Amino acid sequence: QVQLVESGGGLVQAGGSLRLSCAASGSIGSINDMGWYRQTPGNQRESVAVITSGASTIYADSVKGRFTVSRDDAKKMVYLQMTSLKPEDTAVYYCNADVRRKFTSLYQSYWGQGTQVTVSS
After folding, report:
1. What's the rounded Cα separation, in Å, for the pair 90 and 116?
2. What's the pLDDT score for residue 78?
3. Nearest 10 degrees: Cα torsion 91, 65, 99, 39
């Protein structure tokens, strides 16, 4: 089994900062892309930031210049540093990773359970 567990969400005032963390654990052979997505009620989950195994990054236009995604492969973790937060950043944030389990050859997508980020105006 593979598990992703997020932490670091909470309530922050507009203009503030938060750092989200996501730890992957279980029978992991290797991890390819890792990333963060977010979802608000009644809307589809959207990509916020993705980091490849080669450390290339892709950001949604709405967060460019404000959010930074990073990863620590030794610890099997991915982070999202969020600055200059806006009320429209309020959402449940989900961690995602493409993982190859030990003794297998295919990558599968795994999701965390989500962490709430609320930005007050």
Report:
1. 8
2. 98
3. 20
